[in-house]
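note to self — DONT lose this again. spent like an hour looking for the file last time. sequence + predicted structure for the chain T wanted, 235 res
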Amino acid sequence: MRIVYVSVVIVIIDQITKLLVKGFSIPFLNFNYEGMYHGQRIPIIGDFFRLTFIENPGMAFGFDPGTGLKLWISLFSLFASIGLLVYLYFIRNQTLSLRLAIAFILGGAIGNLIDRMFYGVFYGYASLFYGKVVDFFDFDFFNLSIFGRYYDRWPIFNIADAAVSIGVFILIFFYRKHQKEAEDEIKKTETGNIPGEPVSVSNNTENYLDENKIQGNPGNENTDGKSDKGEKIPD
């Protein structure tokens, strides 16, 4: 389960970058970091790549499901993260690519879940489970339309979103390999043997035959003229 460390690193990097963008304060240390103001843009590579601070109130691409569904989205994210963690345990002996993909998706899911669960309380603008996800990576790739909304730039995202996308890409790229391993595992479970390996003769059978040869009784023949119950067999 050391692959979980990948998820942990993703969560840590994701949260550090979000705190640096949004800002934070530590009252008992009298420390305050301002960060960026909402809507601020900082060019990194001209207009192609810039940091733009926004807060996503709901799902991906800025889709707002409304206050009623927001709680259910947060709860779904919570249970999905738990499910991914359990699944990662069950596939701990599977191929590295599959475990790595799930670890990336898990790290991204937990990263955004922290925003939804705690940021509203931490920053004092909403109750538990009603926080907003901090986004800031802003790229000018191509124009697109999603959920009836037109974008002249790629939707702004964060480290957690990137981790989920990378995990999904790995799953798709290695799909055939993962499918073959799943089929081999099913065959192994049904036959009790590893696919591709010959079935070996039982050791018990070999030992039984060897003992009979040593005793001069090859097979199941009765050499004393009696049946198995000790009765004499008639001539």
